[in-house]
Amino acid sequence: MAIRVLLAEDDHGIQLVARLALKKAGFEVTVVDNGAAALAHVATERPDVILLDWMMPELDGLETCTRLKLDSATRDIPVIFMTAKSQQAEIERGLLLGAAGYITKPFDALTLGAEVRGLLER
Amino acid sequence: MTRGSTRPPVLLLTAFVMLGGVGRVPTVAAQTAPAGPPFLAYGGDSHRPPFEYLDSSGRPRGFNVDLIRAVAREAGIRIDIRLAPWKVTLANFEAGKVDLISLAYTDERAKKYSMFFQTRTLTPSLVFIGTRDSFPRRLDMLRREIVAVEDQSAVHDFLLAISPSARPLIRTAPDPSAVMRMLADGKATVAAGDGLTLRFAAEELSLGPVATIPVTSLPYHLAVRKDRQSIESLLLPALLQLRATGEIDRLITESSLIPGRTRGWRDYVRVLAGGAAFVLALVIGFVLWNRSLREKVDARTKALTASLQQLERSALERSRVEDALRDSEDRFQAFMNHSPAIAFMKDEEGRYVYINKPLERRFGTTLEELRGRTAFEWLPADTATALSTNDAMVLSEGPAEFVEPITMPDGVPHSWLTFRFPFVDGSGKKFLGGVAIDITRRNLAEEKLRASEARIRSILDNMLEALMTVDESGVIDSMNASAEKMFGYRSEQLVGRHLRTLLPEAAGADPEQFLKSAYKRAIGRITEWEGRRQNGEVFPFELSLFEFGVPGGRHLAGSMRDVSERREVDRMKNEFVSIVSHELRTPLTSIRGSLQLVLDDEHAVEGSEYRELLSVSLANCERLIRIISDILDISKIEAGRFTLDRRPTRVRDVVRLSIQNVESIATAASVRLVQHVPDALPRILVDTDRMVQAIVNLLGNALKFAPPKSIVHITADQRPDGGVGLSVRDHGKGIAPEDLGRLFQKFQQLDGSASRSVGGTGLGLAITKALVEQHGGTVSVVSVVDKGTTFTIALPSTSVEAACPLTESHHVDSVSASRRSGADQKADPDVAATILLAEADEDLRGVLAHALGRRGFIVLTARDGRETLDVFEEAHVDLVVLNLVMAGLDGFEVIARLRASARGAEVPVVAISDSDASDSAARAFKIGADAVLFKPLNANSLLLEVRRSLRQIGQTTSRRFG
C-alpha cells in the first residue's frame, strides 16, 4: 500500500514540486497550506508521515509538531521537517520534540521520496 | 717622644742585680744598698735627662733613679742602679744582667716584656725651633717636613707606621741631644720625640726657645723580663705604697723641671754659696740669718718649682685641649665643606656669620665677602626679601622647611629646599641656621613624571576601551572615562565602592564568587560578561583581566568593551542572512524541483536544444544554491556560531564519502581519483560532514584544474607529530607563487576562465580553511607551475583518537548537526526510548534536553511537578528524569505519586538533587528513585545513569524500543 504523506507547506511552487516528486516516488500525497490545516486533517485522517514546512502562517512547523507530539493520538505519526538549513538550532528543538528528521531545502526533487523513506525506516 | 718610647728613658743608672746565685756584674756606676737582703739590678740609659742620666760627676740621677731608690727603701731590698749607653743597657737586660728597666709602653714591647707598673706618662711631641707660619699638629701632618728622631725610638716606629704618601723625610740620630742638634743645624725642620726629653736636650744645648706640640701620650713603665716576673711581687707593694702617698707624683714634678728655667736660682744659690765663706768669715752672727735665708731660698725654690710644674702642666693641658678643639674644628669644617648641602648661619639681624664651602662654590661668593652682610647686599631684592621673610618667621616661630626659588649667578633659576632653624650660642646670642639642597633637578623630574602621568591619563581617558582596576576584594580603585561612559557613573561615584554595583542582580548577589570565576575565566583572555549600567540596563561586554601587584597587595585590572551594539548588529545580520536565505531558497526549491522533474521525464521535452536549455538552467540553479549555502556557511563560521559534532571516524570513511561526492564530476572530466589510505591509521575526531565538505572543496578544486586523463591523488598518512595528514594532489597547471597568498580569501577565483562542469563559488577554499582550523588543523598548499598543486590538511594529534580519546563531554555542549538527512547514531540501542524531563530551570532543561536528544532519545519536558504527572499520564514514557526541587508539587511528591500509580510503579526515575542536600538523596531513594544525581550536573553522568537505568529494566522493556 502506498505510503500516505501529509505535506504542510505554504509555498505553492514547492507544494507542486514536492507533490509531483513524492507521487513519482510512489507516495500518496495530501497537501495543506499550514500547520493548523495539518492538525485539522490529522483529526480525521491518519497519514503515515507528516512533512512540515518550518515557516508557515497560522501555525508554524515547530508548534504543529509540538501539538502532534503532545497528543497521544498523534504522537506516533512520524514528523519530518522541511527547512532551510540556517535554522539548525531550532531544528534541534524540533528533533527534541520527537521529529523523525528533517530535509533541507532546497531539496532534491529526484531523491525526495528516497529521503523520506530513509527517515521513516530509522 | 724620643727614646723614651723606644728604649728605656734617657738617664741611666747602672744597676745590677743578682738574684740567687747569679754572679755579680761590674757596673759603670754602682750604688750599694744595704747588704743582707736580696738585691736586684736596675738598668738605665746614661743620657736621658730628666729620666735617667749620669751627672757631670758620673752619678746616676733623674726620675727613674729617684724612684728606684725610693722603691728599694720602701721594699727594704737592695737595688743596684747601673746606667750605661742605652744599647748596652738593653743588651744587659736581654742577657739577664740587669733585672729591671723603664720603658715607654708599646704593644710590641708588652709582648716581649712584662711591663708591670706605669710610673708616669710620656708625651711624644713635635719640637720646633724658630718661628714658622703654621705648626703641624699630628704625626700624619708632617708630609712636607724633615723629621729628626732618635733611632729605634717609639716615635721612630710611629713615623715609620705612617702611610708612605703622608710620611715625612725621616732623619735618625742616636740620642735626644743629637736629635736636637740636627734640628739646630737646620738638618731637620722638626724634631720628634718625648717632649720633656727633647726640651731638656734643647736646654742642654742652649738652643733658646723651642715650641713643643704634644701629639699623643704614652705610658712609661717599669719592665722585667717575662722569665723574671717573680720580681714584680717584690716591688709592687712598694710601688703602690709610693703612689698612694703621692711620692711618685712628687718625683714626677721635681724631675719635670726644665734646667734652663731653674738656672737663675741655681746660680743664685751658687753665688750665695760662694758668698757664704765671706759671710762666715766676717760675721758669725750672720749664720742664723744665713740659714734662714737658705731656708727661704729653699722654700722659694720649692714654691717656684711647684708653680713652674703647675705652669708646665696647664700648658700641656691647654695644648691638649686646644689640640682637641682644633681637631674638632677641623672635623666640623671638613664635615660642612664636604656636605652636599649648602649651610649658613646668620645673626638675628640677618647678617651672615658663616657659610660653608658648597655655598661659596654654588653662589660664587666667599665667607669673607659675606661675613657681616645681609641677603640684601648680594642677592636681588625680591629674593632677599623672600629669604628674609622666611628668616624672620623662623626666628620667631621655630624651625621650618621652605622651597625657595633663587636665581643662580649664571642666571638660571633653581629651587632650593631649605631647612631653617633658630639656635642660641653659649653666650645666649640668637642665631639662625640653615641648610639647603638644590631640588631643581628633582623638581624637573617630578614635572616630567607629572607630564607623563597626565599624558597616560589622557590616553587612558580617550581610549575606546574601558579600564577599571579593583583590589583583591573587588573594591574599585580607578576607572577611565570610557568606563564611566560605559556604566553611566562618574568615577567618584564608584571609586571605593564594590564592583557588585556594576553587575546584574544575579551576579552581584555573590560578588566574591563572581570575582573568583571572573579571575579564572578572564585572566589573560577575552571573555564575555554582563554588566549593569546606572539606569539598570544590563548589557554584554568583553573583558580581559590582568593582575598586577602594588605595595598594597594584588590588584586586578579589567579592560572592557561594550559589545551590546556589536551583538545587536550580529543579531540583525544573522536575521538578515536567515531571512534572505529562506526567501531565496523557497523559490529555488520550486525552480530546481520543476526542472529536475521535467528533465527526469525523458519524453517531457522533445528536441535536444530545449532540453539543453533546461539543463543549463538546472546547472545554474544548482550553482546558485551552492553559493547561497557557502555564504551561509562562511557567515556562520565567521560569526563563531558554528559548532562541530566531533566523533571518532575512520579516515577511510571520510575519504570514501568525499570521493563519492565528486565521483560524477570526475567522470565527466575524465579524471581518475586514486586514494592512498593506509589501514593502520587511527580514527580521527572530526565532524564527518564538515570534514567531508572540506575535502570535497579541495577535490573539486583539483578536478577543475586537472587535465583530462590525469589522476588526482588523495592521500592520508600519519604525521610525525602524531596527527593525521590528508592531501589532494593534481597535475594541473599549478598556481603562480604570487597568487598563493590570495588562495584562501573569499571570492577569489584565480582561474578567470569559465569553470568546467562545476561552477566554483569562490568560497570553497576559504570554507575549507575555516573548517579545518575549527578542527584545530591547518591547510597548506604547495604548487609548481605546470606541474601541479598539492593541498594538505594537517589535523593535530589532539584530533586523533589514540592521542586524545573522545570523552562524552565533547558532545554535550555542541549543537549537533548530525540528524540532517538522517545520518548517524544507528548504533545506539536506546534510541527511541522516551524520557520525560522535569526541571524548573529553563536553561538546565534546555541543556539536558539537547544532551539526551542528541543521543536519540525522545525527550518530553515538564516545568513542574503537576506538568510532569500530566505528561506522564498522556504520553508513553520509558524513563523520568526529575529535579527534586520544584515549585508546587516537588520531586518527592511526584515520585511518590508515580510509584502509587499503575503505570508509574515500574518506570525508572533518575532524580536530580542539590549537592548539599545529601539527606534529600536518601529520602528520594526511600520513596523510590532509582538513581540520584547531584548538582552541578554533568550531562555525561546523566547519560550514563539514564542508560544504566534503562538497561536494568532492559529484559522486560527491550521490546518497547528494540
Description:
- The complex is a heterodimer of chains A (122) and B (962).
- Chain A has helices at 12-24, 35-44, 61-70, 88-96, 112-121; strands at 4-8, 28-32, 49-53, 79-84, 101-105.
- Chain A is α/β, with parallel strands linked by helices and 122 residues long.
- The longest helix of chain A is centred in the N-terminal third of the chain and has 13 residues, at 12-24.
- In chain B, strand 29 (778-784) and strand 30 form a beta hairpin.
- In chain B, the strands form 9 sheets. Chain B has a 5-stranded mixed β-sheet with strand order 10-9-11-8-12, with helices on both faces. A 5-stranded antiparallel β-sheet of chain B has the order 15-14-18-17-16, sandwiched between helices. Chain B has a 5-stranded antiparallel β-sheet with strand order 20-19-23-22-21.
- In chain B, helix 21 (608-638) packs parallel to helix 25.
- The longest helix of chain B has 53 residues, at 286-338.
- Chain B contains 32 helices and 35 strands.
- The interface between A and B is large, with 42 and 41 residues.
